């Protein structure tokens, strides 16, 4: 049986459904393993049901490189008026990760390789040669993407044509368009009572979570549940500034990890989901402007209508009658959006599920599996 290795440089594997779904889909025809970094940012939980080789960076080296990044980025930000096209991303620690990754994947040089995002792609090309590329996140001015060899990409998995053109500008590479969505069998359409508003995903201030809490503060007739992993600094802000909402149970926080099937069933008990990003991020980062997030498709898989930021990534929601897009997060704007959905809730809910069926992972990923089987 042919072997496939999926290479990632992130430490949030549990929250990357495309990688996990790809593993499950391909595991029926190939022998698979994943190379990833030990979880840290969103908790220490590991995926226990898959063949995963975790890389654990040296604690001292990690501390030193991250301190160097903090210092260098602070200096760059102060001089940003003189520096153009700089994304202020980490560099020393990222380069250290690249070296660790390079050492690790030598053992898999005879396998079919799927590299996730530019840094692993660059490393895999240097160590192995021609590989497949799974694009999950686009970092503006990514230094690693500038170093990759386009002729050493066998195929590309990406969310849509706009993102492909942004990265490859007309370069003809075998491409598969697959959304960051659950598989069809994971969907769950709840026909029983649904109550409350839901925020699902990474709970981080950059995703306009504080605007949602401001809305609840103004409209206490609603209850909001935050379901997902907390980013530490955001947690401190919420527990301080919005302590009264937590104490009154107007806002409930649930950080317990659920597998995707249970997660969707949980989401299906709510009426409306929020999917927002801070406007500054949307204006400066094409990644969020052009790709629907994984949590959006979790909402849709549960038949939950969505209120989302009015950007390219979410246009299809209004076109399909599965949600409402907003131009700001003012409490009045969100209140009106909720009322619009509630005025025809059953139709919005039904449309949400239909949109999910059209974008579910397995239907859209089968051509990629067939391609690998035929060409390897």
As residue ranges, the low-confidence spans are 84-88
Instruction: Quickly give the structural class.
Output: alpha/beta
- Put simply, the count of helices is 16
* Main CATH class of the largest domain: Alpha Beta
Report, as a whole number of angstroms, the end-to-end distance. 10 Å
Question: How would you characterize this protein structure?
Answer:
The chain contains 16 helices and 13 strands. By secondary structure, it is of the alpha/beta class. The chain folds into 2 domains: 3-181 and 360-375, Rossmann fold, CATH 3.40.50; 185-359, Rossmann fold. The strands form 2 sheets. Strands 3-2-1-4-5-6-7 form a 7-stranded parallel sheet, with helices on both faces. Strands 10-9-8-11-12-13 form a 6-stranded parallel sheet, sandwiched between helices. Helix 1 (17-26) crosses helix 16 (361-375), helix 3 crosses helix 4 and helix 12 crosses helix 15. It is globular and about 60 Å long. It starts with a strand and ends with a helix. Residues 84-88 have low confidence and may be disordered.
């Amino acid at each position: 049986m042919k072997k496939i290795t999926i290479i990632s440089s992130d430490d949030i594997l549990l929250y990357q459904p495309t990688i996990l779904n790809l593993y499950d889909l391909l595991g029926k025809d190939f022998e698979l393993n994943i190379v990833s970094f030990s979880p840290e940012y969103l908790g220490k939980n590991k995926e226990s049901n898959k063949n995963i080789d975790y890389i654990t960076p040296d604690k001292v080296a990690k501390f030193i490189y991250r301190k160097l990044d903090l210092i260098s980025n602070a200096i760059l930000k102060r001089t940003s008026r003189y520096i153009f096209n700089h994304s202020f991303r980490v560099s020393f620690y990222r380069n250290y990760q690249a070296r660790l990754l390079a050492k690790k994947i030598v053992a898999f040089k005879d396998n079919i390789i799927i590299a996730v995002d530019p840094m692993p792609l660059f490393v895999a090309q240097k160590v192995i040669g021609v590989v497949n590329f799974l694009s999950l996140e686009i970092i503006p001015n990514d230094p690693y993407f500038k170093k990759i060899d386009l002729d050493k990409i066998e195929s590309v998995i990406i969310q849509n044509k706009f993102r492909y053109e942004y990265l490859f500008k007309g370069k003809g590479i075998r491409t598969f368009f697959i959304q960051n969505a659950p598989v069809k069998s994971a969907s769950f359409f709840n026909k029983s009572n649904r109550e409350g508003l839901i925020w699902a995903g990474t709970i981080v201030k950059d995703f306009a979570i504080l605007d949602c809490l401001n809305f609840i503060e103004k409209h206490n007739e609603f209850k909001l549940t935050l379901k997902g992993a907390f980013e530490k600094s955001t947690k401190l802000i919420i527990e301080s500034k919005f302590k009264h909402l937590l104490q009154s149970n107007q806002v409930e926080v649930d950080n317990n990890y659920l597998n995707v099937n249970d997660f969707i069933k949980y989401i299906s008990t709510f009426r409306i989901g929020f999917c927002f990003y801070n406007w500054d991020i949307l204006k400066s980062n094409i990644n969020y402007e052009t790709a629907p997030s994984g949590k959006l498709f979790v909402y849709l898989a549960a038949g939950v209508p969505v209120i989302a930021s009015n950007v390219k990534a979410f246009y299809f929601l209004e076109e399909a009658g599965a949600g409402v897009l907003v131009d700001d997060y003012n409490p009045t704007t969100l209140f009106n959006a909720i009322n619009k959905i509630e005025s025809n809730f059953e139709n919005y809910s039904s449309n949400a599920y239909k949109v999910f069926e059209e974008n579910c992972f397995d239907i859209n990923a089968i051509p990629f599996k067939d391609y690998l089987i035929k060409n390897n």
